[in-house]
Design goal:
Rossmann fold, 6 helices, globular, alpha/beta, eleven-stranded mixed beta sheet, two-stranded antiparallel ribbon
């Protein structure tokens, strides 16, 4: 049970390295109608703002992407009063000009997953939220602005293709993704983003590029990445992300006037009477 005086306004999904950023941190186990979240939720402060943190893979990275309880994770954030979700995640680049170390603030996604629980609305009401602009435009703009101020290589838009995992793409799949013009590939971006929309939460994805995906080598003169290089870029990305979150969180306005906050207003299909 969550104490009545416990709440947060901003939620962060990410790796365990975020724990060290929070001050006055406390952990809470939260029950949801969809089962347990990936981990106990940690509440604390960043620059005076109340933040809830949840590692989507679990504290020990025990949940692979296809086994994450995305619905429970999002519901737990909503229960705490969160209205904004910041969702960083490692990814592979699909384009030669999107180099490792770059941050891509996605504006579109392509879903290539299968079998994941992807909605809170399984009836009796029919709910069809719009996914035309799936990521919060206000948060995307703010993330891009703060990244540029910090000198972080950033793309203000891009399409993420979300694959099922846990395997990586074949070379043929990667070449296909690249030729379609998509920007990055990862395994956790869906259905997280649309579940947030169904709860009328603002959601921004920050794709942290660690390497070039397999098929990019066939499309251009790109040096194949090594495991050591991936680890190096991953560590550098984590430090850049910490700096970005410290700059971003205090700059987020308290009031919302974006499309996310009213996502359900025109999403409900009224029941239709059936002729006898």
């Amino acid at each position: 049970m969550i104490p009545q005086d416990v709440s947060a306004e901003i939620g962060v999904f990410g790796g365990s390295g975020f724990y060290s950023l929070l001050t006055d941190a406390r952990e809470f186990a939260i029950d949801t109608p969809y089962g347990a979240p990936s981990e106990r939720v940690t509440l604390g402060e960043v620059a005076g703002r109340r933040v809830a943190f949840l590692p989507r893979h679990g504290r020990f990275h025990q949940y692979p992407p296809h086994a994450i309880n995305y619905r429970a994770n999002l519901w737990a954030m909503k229960e705490l009063g969160v209205s904004r979700i910041i969702a960083p995640g490692a990814c592979g680049s699909l384009q030669p000009d999107i180099e490792p170390g770059c941050f891509v603030v996605c504006d579109q996604f392509v879903d290539r997953t299968a079998g994941r629980e992807q909605t809170f609305y399984n009836g009796p009401l029919a709910i069809h939220v719009s996914a035309a602009e799936p990521y919060c435009p206000d948060l995307r703009r703010l993330v891009t602005e703060k990244a540029r101020e910090l000198g972080i290589p950033v793309r203000p838009e891009g399409t993420a293709v979300i694959i099922q995992g846990p395997r990586f793409s074949t070379k043929a799949e990667s070449i296909w993704f690249t030729r379609m013009g998509w920007s990055v590939v990862n395994m956790t971006g869906y259905p997280e983003v649309t579940l947030a929309r169904e709860l009328e939460l603002c959601y921004v994805n920050i794709a942290l590029v660690t390497d070039w995906n397999a098929g990019v080598h066939a499309e251009a003169e790109v040096k194949p990445v090594t495991a050591d290089e991936v680890h190096r870029v991953f560590a550098e990305n984590n430090q850049r992300l910490r700096n970005l979150l410290f700059a971003l969180i205090p700059a987020i306005p308290e009031e919302r006037d974006c499309l996310c906050s009213a996502a359900l207003h025109e999403a409900v299909i009224s029941p239709i009477e059936t002729p006898l």
